[in-house]
Design goal:
By secondary structure, this protein is α+β, with helices and mostly antiparallel strands. The protein has helices at 17-32, 61-74, 97-106, 179-182, 270-277, and strands at residues 7-11, 36-39, 54-59, 77-82, 92-93, 110-114, 117-122, 130-134, 137-142, 149-155, 158-165, 167-171, 194-200, 210-213, 218-223, 233-237, 241-245, 250-255, 260-264.
């Protein structure tokens, strides 16, 4: 449910003339509506300013992804003005800027909760574990491109399959329009309570995407391939971070405790967005 806004933080990594014009329009329009508006740095904070009620990204999906985990952890609503190409996550384009200002001022916007992946890397003998969040997907693959991996995938401790493939993806419904789609995964409705597990270029033609409930814990266990014990593997979160993983390490993937609160314009229609973005 929409809540009354008092302050809006703007994240604009790019400083092109088009972006600067949008910033100027937002400052003017939101200021006239009585809303405080200020720019944020890479850490999503601004010296001397408090916590914004809403974080507005000026860019494309990449800009949104860079801010999503921090926004979710801090309970901020995340919105975007598409200055890029696809813009699946953004609320509107530049042509809709006045409508965006009006709905923020009136409190007539919508908020859609999107599930995040919480990923933990466990190493034998190590205290604690490395943890990260992903909006779209986790991808596990060999560091040297063109090489295949063997990985056991478990659901709540029970073996699903041992995949022999270029890699394995675990995607959220939000991520079903990203890397997962390119790898042959299905499109999922944003509020579907599921994950999609997709092998990347599997050796067996019977290994296809599988959709599982997001209540399960998924475990990925890399396995040694004959003659390739020394080759390294990596995993990536939303294609933005790359982390090495040893053969005796494991990755556990579960539903993050806090969802991403994504800004929606009034009357937002996901089917219409699919038709427009995928050119159906």
């Amino acid at each position: 449910m929409a809540r009354a806004l008092q302050s809006i933080g703007i994240l604009a990594p790019s400083r092109t003339p088009a972006v600067l014009r949008v910033i100027d329009t937002l400052y003017t329009g939101l200021g006239q509506a009585g809303l405080s508006c200020f720019e944020l740095g890479p850490t999503l904070r601004s010296p001397g300013q408090g916590e914004p009620d809403l974080l507005l990204c000026l860019g494309g999906d990449g800009t949104m992804l860079s801010a999503a985990a921090e926004a979710a952890q801090r309970g901020l609503i995340l919105g975007g003005v598409n200055m890029g190409h696809l813009g699946f996550l953004t609320a509107c384009g530049v042509d809709d800027l006045q409508q965006l200002i009006d709905c923020l001022a009136a409190g007539s916007y919508g908020v859609e909760e999107r599930t995040l992946l919480q990923v933990r890397q466990h190493s034998p003998g190590a205290e604690g574990c490395e943890t990260g969040l992903a909006v779209n997907e986790l991808s596990l693959m060999r560091a040297q491109t063109g090489k295949m991996i063997d990985v056991d995938v478990e659901l709540d401790g029970c073996l699903l399959n041992r995949y022999h493939a270029d890699g394995v993806l675990v995607a959220t419904p939000t991520g079903s329009t990203a890397y997962s789609l390119s790898a042959g995964g299905p499109l999922l409705w944003p509020d579907a309570g599921v994950y999609c597990i997709t092998p990347i270029c599997p050796h067996s033609l019977t290994n296809r995407s599988i959709v599982v409930p997001d209540s399960v814990t998924i475990t990925l266990r890399p396995r040694e391939r004959r003659g390739r014990a020394g080759e390294s593997l990596i995993y990536s979160l939303d294609g933005r971070t790359t982390t090495p993983i040893a053969l005796n390490d494991t990755l556990t993937i579960s539903k993050a405790p806090r969802p991403l609160q994504l800004l929606q314009m009034p009357g937002a229609d996901y089917a219409a967005r699919l038709r427009a973005k995928l050119r159906w």
